[in-house]
Every structure is written in C-alpha cells, then in structure tokens.
Amino acid sequence: MSTRDRFLLSIAALVVIQVVSSVPASGQDVGSRATRLASAGWTVRVADRPGGGGAAVGQAGRGRAGGPSTPAGPIPRTPDGKPDLTGRWNGSGGVLHNTVILEEHPGGFGVQAGKTLIIEPPDGIIPYQPWALAERNRRRDDANGYEDQVGHCEFYEVGRLASFAHDIMYSGGNVIINHTQHITRVIDMNRREHLPQGIRLWLGDPIGRWEGDTLVVDTTNLNGKGRMALGGDFYSSDAHLVERFAMVNSNTFNWTLTITDPKVFTRPWTMTSAVPMTRERQGGESFDTEDSCHEGNVDLVHLKNVYDQAHGNGGAVKWPPEYVQGPGPGQTR
Amino acid sequence: MPIPLRERVLTLLIGAVAVAAIADSVSAPLTAQAPAGVQAYAPPRTAAGHPDLQGVWRAWNLAKFDLEDHGAKPGVPAGRGFVVDPPDGKIPYQPWALEKRRQNVARTKETDPYKNADPLAKCYLPGIPRLTYLGWPFQIIQTPQYVAFNYEWSHKKRYVPVTSVAAPPAPDDQSNWNGIPRGRFDGNALVVNLANFNGYTWFDMAGNFHSDALRVVERYTPINADTLQYEATMEDAKVFTRPWTIRMVLQRQKDVGILDYECTAMLDEMGIHHTWPRDFDVVQ
C-alpha cells in the first residue's frame, strides 16, 4: 500500500468530520456541504465491513482479520488465574458511528444512524453543564472541523478508541493496549498511586487492578486536549476515567467507561461500545501495516481553508510556488 | 506569524534532543564498542521459550546526532561514532551519495520545517534504525507470536512477527517508513530482517540517508539484566559501496514507563499547520 493509499484512509476521517457536523446540532445547509465535498474531489467512505471498524482510519490493509475464528468457550486464564484478555478485539460492530457521535443520532450523509452509547444516565444524554454543551456544539460546527485532531492524524482520547480494533498484551506488571494508528497505552498493574500531578498526558496515566474477573483501569493526569468524538464531545484535564473490562467468554468482554469531571458535567456518566468487544483473528500479515498517516496528509489544507474562511482569516492556505505540483503557482489546492 | 513560530518549534525540537543528550551523557557509555562477554549472559526466557527482552529501554548516546565521529556543532556535543564496520568508522557512500549527504546537511539549516530536509523536522516516522536511538524510551512486549515495540515518541509502535511463515510483501512495495519486519530468535538475540522501505527517512541529524533499496538487519542481544546490545546492518546497493554496521548499547529504564511525546501535536501548538504539500509521490 502506497503512502497515497494510506493517506486515502485518513481522508475518510476528514470526510466524516465534515459529514458529522451536519448531523444534529446546527441544521445547516447540507446541500452546499455536499457540493463542497464534491468540488474538493472527496468521496464519502465509511467503514462498513464486518469486524473492520477501524477501516476508515488506519487499520485497513493487508491481511485484515474478521470475526472470531473459534466458537466461544469459557474465560481463558493466565497461570495466576486472572482472565486472559490477550488478543485482538473490536467493539465497533463494524461501523464507525461510535467515533462520530456518542448519543442517539439519525443517519445520512455517510453516517449510519446509531443508538446512544451512553448507558448512564438512563436518558442516554451526556450531562453537560450549560457552558460545556455550548462548547461541545461549537466544536461540532462544520466551520470548526479543522480543530479536531483526527484530521491531523492524531487520535488521542480513551473513549474514542473503543471503536477501533485493538491488541491487548500482558507484559510483566503491565497490561498493554495498542490501538489502531499510533495509540498505545501501558497500564501499570502494580502502582497504586498516580504519577505526580505535574505530568499531564494525552491518554492520561492508567493504573489497573483486578476486581474479581473484571480488569478496572483508573486514569487521571489527562491534559484535557483530547476529543471524545468527531462530534465535539470532550472532558477537561480534571477528568477521572474508570474503565471496566469484564470478560464474558473467550470471545467477548464488556467494556464501560465512567467519566467524572465536575468542571464539565453535572454528574458522572458511563458509556460503552457499540457492541460487546469481540475477538478478532490476529496474525502475522495483519501487522504489515504501519502507523503512517500524517506523512501523507495532503488534504488537511481543505479543512484549514474551510476554517479560515469561516473565521475571516482571509481564506486560503497559500503554498510557496516551489511546492505546488498540480495547480499553478500561488493557487490553493 | 508562521515563520517565527516554525523557527521556534524547530529550535524546541532540536534543543530538547540536545539537552537530553547533554544531561545524560554523564552516565552514558559513549563508546561504540560492545562490552565483552556478550554470549556469557543467559537471559530469562518467556513462557514460549524465547529470550525475554521485555521492559523499557533507551539509547543514552549521541547516535541521534551523527552515526560517525564528529566535532561539536551548535547544540551537538562532539563524540565518537557508532559504525563498527567498515573499521574506519565511515559510512561507505558511493561518490554521488556523499555529495547528496552534503546537500542534506546544508538543508538542515532551514528553520522552516517544510523546507528543512530532515524528515524528523516534519514529525515524519523516523524509520529504522533511527527510531531506536532517537533518544526517547521504548518498551518491548513479547507474545508467543510477535514482539511489539511501543515507542514513547509519538506513541508509535511496530510489531515484529517471530513465528510468521507469511512472506514479506513483494520487493516493489517500497512504501514503508519503518520497513516490513520478519523476526526470529538466534541464540539469545532477537534478529529482525527489514525490507520494503521507502527512500524518505534518514539515519540521524547529520544527513545520513538511504534509498528505497535499503535492507536492514537488527540484532538485539541481552548482555546483562539491564543492557541490550543493539546492532544494525544496512545494505543499499544504490547508495553504499558495501554493507555497514552500527553497534551501541540500550539501557533499561526503571523510573517510570513510557509517557508521551506527540510530535505532530506540538507542531500544531506552535502554530505550524500540517498543510504543507507532500511531494513523496512526485519528487525523490
């Protein structure tokens, strides 16, 4: 797969940004947006292959695996009796609405309709404080899509990761979760105290423990820069995340994420994955796809131009003439 | 004002590396020579029977600046090189390639990342072996089927299958920044054969480079509980007159695990938009 091929995968993510911003918040003129997409030469592609939830942003490639290869059996265990979660998992259900919008939403424009992933509170609505809801909706606006890190080939947020294939490994006192693209987490199972407050990280400081057969991962020390979905959902650097990985059988575990952040929400809330985490086959050839994305990200310039025009920054990014390959010197691309 | 910001971020990126290297050179073995007794140490074994190389490792040395012997430059301490073969310590470039390296060096003085020739200035995947000695720690994780490398630098990772019988991609797939790996254990060592590289990565900040004909053999050998000997042999008939080998040690890091260093996000935060044209498919 060439750099350009891989880059096309990232384009799909950019398109989703554009598309989702038309879903519930603003009631904008989606016709003009579709025209804009078409004029930019983009095609809307959303991963809909079974078991391939990461297809639009990175995991597509040689030897992608499908669903579980063997029937479900009892919970496998390591020599010390703990559930063995090692292997490759995917909770997307084969679609990407999990990364697009977390609450219930209608379909259209390349985004599948989805039920809410919020299981607490029971109404399925994220309990934002008023200022935070306004900020979420501002981020969701089409004109601000450039702000989302996904278009920049950056995917840093814990909740967002649940919709992509990920590998779980055990090593020494660590549980390692490697997600599609360059997202990795090393969960310290021995440490009981978090790192000093001064160390702030995109994915926070995860420490883990076992409660019976459930792996509980507790994360603080976040930097507050990540976004939970293309639809603008967020929390602050004060957030406290608790994930629970509850194994059901050899091919399935249930994952939940509870977020407590008094700065942003009126109460703690809990989300889950679109479907229970399901085992996928994991094999040598499926590793032959590397984490490139930024390297071929030639079309971020389009989102930047949309952003600049909407914000009165005089419009287009101008490339220096010596770098312009296709359009004439000084033109935007 | 994008240009001043770009200058600032480049200074930041290079300066951070320099400071780290200087600060830690006190405890760093700067010699390129391997300690004696490489085969004397018997590392623990994993449940699968493989040598256990797991843990957090880091190259505390000057290789990131220049793989050859070099004098001091702004932000760069003078130091010994790491080329152990050929014995003169010099990378065996073909004449045209030596000139290309000279041009590369000249273009590293550009403060604007998208004019700077060093791919690292743009936060592109550094390639192998550069990612090993870039200066940030990385964690090795082993399963019976593969060895995972999780790097702190931009959360990058790679998987080296060690039991795979799958053939690597055809040689004309020359699109991978880090190459396509196939691994095996040889005695106590993990040996990684890499091919299918693209021609866009460098070996260090001194303009040392290769083409898409590059093939690399890495060898990670535990020499005591807290030290890996790292060797990499490079072969590239388009650029070099013969294969050449570097050798250094990697030290176990015990204080804290890998954290994060999001290079591309730092560009954003310094006001450098990633909107420069990518010319990989047009210009070599």
The biggest sheet of chain B, with number of strands, parallel, antiparallel or mixed sense and barrel status, is: 10 strands, antiparallel
- What's the number of structural domains of chain A? 1
Structural class of chain B: alpha+beta
Approximate shape of chain B? globular
- Average pLDDT of chain A works out at 76
Strand proportion of chain A, as a percent range, falls in 15-25%
Distance between the termini of chain A: 24 Å
Low-confidence stretches of chain B: 1-36
Name the assembly state. Answer: heterodimer
Task: Briefly note the structural class of the backbone of chain A.
Answer: alpha+beta
Terminal residue distance of chain B? 30 Å
Number of strands of chain A: 11
Question: What are the segments of chain A in which pLDDT stays under 50 over at least 5 consecutive residues?
Answer: 1-65, 319-333
Radius of gyration of chain B: 18 Å
Strand content of chain B: 15-25%
Order of helices and strands of chain A: HHEHEHEEEEEEEEEH
Total of helices of chain B: 3
Continuous helix count of chain A: 5
How is the secondary structure organized here?
The complex is a heterodimer of chains A (about 325) and B (about 280).
Chain A: H1 3-20, H2 30-39, E1 87-90, H3 97-100, E2 118-120, H4 130-140, E3 166-171, E4 174-179, E5 183-188, E6 205-211, E7 214-220, E8 240-249, E9 252-260, E10 269-272, E11 277-280, H5 300-310
Antiparallel strand pairs in A: 1-3, 1-11, 2-10, 3-4, 4-5, 6-7, 7-8, 8-9, 9-10, 9-11
Chain B: H1 2-24, E1 55-58, E2 83-85, H2 95-107, E3 138-142, E4 146-151, E5 157-161, E6 180-186, E7 189-195, E8 215-224, E9 227-235, E10 244-252, H3 263-269
Describe this structure in words.
The complex is a heterodimer of chains A (about 325) and B (about 280). Chain A is an alpha+beta fold. Chain A has one domain (about 5-285). Chain A has 5 helices and 11 strands. Chain A has helices spanning about 5-20, 30-40, 95-100, 130-140, 300-310; strands at about 85-90, 120, 165-170, 175-180, 185-190, 205-210, 215-220, 240-250, 250-260, 270, 275-280. The longest helix of chain A has 18 residues, at about 5-20. Chain A is globular. The model of chain A is unreliable at about 1-65 and about 320-333 (pLDDT under 50). In chain B, strands 1, 2, 3, 4, 5, 6, 7, 8, 9 and 10 form a 10-stranded antiparallel β-sheet that branches. Residues about 1-35 of chain B have low confidence and may be disordered. Chain B has one domain. Chain B has 3 helices and 10 strands. Chain B is an alpha+beta fold. Chain B has helices at about 1-25, 95-105, 265-270; strands spanning about 55-60, 85, 140, 145-150, 155-160, 180-185, 190-195, 215-225, 225-235, 245-250.
